[in-house]
Amino acid sequence: MTTTPTPPHISNGSTSTNPQANKLPDGYMTAEMIAESLARITGKKSIPASTIRGMASRDQMPAPTGLKWGRRILWDADEVSEWLKKREARHVPRALVRQIQRNLAALDEQARATGNDARLKQGVRNAYRRGLSFQQIADAILVKNGDHHPTREAVRSRFGPYI
Description:
By secondary structure, the chain is mainly alpha-helical. The protein folds into 2 domains: 71 residues, Multidrug-efflux Transporter Regulator, Chain: A, Domain 2 (Orthogonal Bundle); 69 residues, no CATH class. It contains 7 helices and 3 strands; from the N terminus they run E-H-H-E-E-H-H-H-H-H. Helix 1 packs across helix 2, helix 1 packs parallel to helix 3 and helix 4 runs antiparallel to helix 5. The protein is elongated and about 65 Å long. The N and C termini lie far apart (69 Å). The N terminus is likely disordered.
């Protein structure tokens, strides 16, 4: 009985002596590789591969190809590199985020003291246009009675018409 050779990108669970059997096929990336690249872009130490799989399932990044390398799902490297370039262009450095959040906190205090939140609305609009997420904006301001931070959904509903 003859067996057909296994293509290099498919693992059949055997410990093959063929060096091609363990080599990642050209033009594809694993979730671990994408996570490493995303961590470099965002300035984080590491990002778990499960985050990448979750982002793909929520359509926040390109979907996997359906091919597997062993047990790992593969993504098209060209699609992912294009997505990473767009993501890098949108990234706001952490120092700038903190600076904008301090400004928003000051505007929030002023709005609370004077009862006029027009400057706060303008500040939120500017922060959103500069790339801050609703969660980052929510972390900078307090709810109207001032005892806790609002949720990102609350920020979206309160300031959405002004953005």
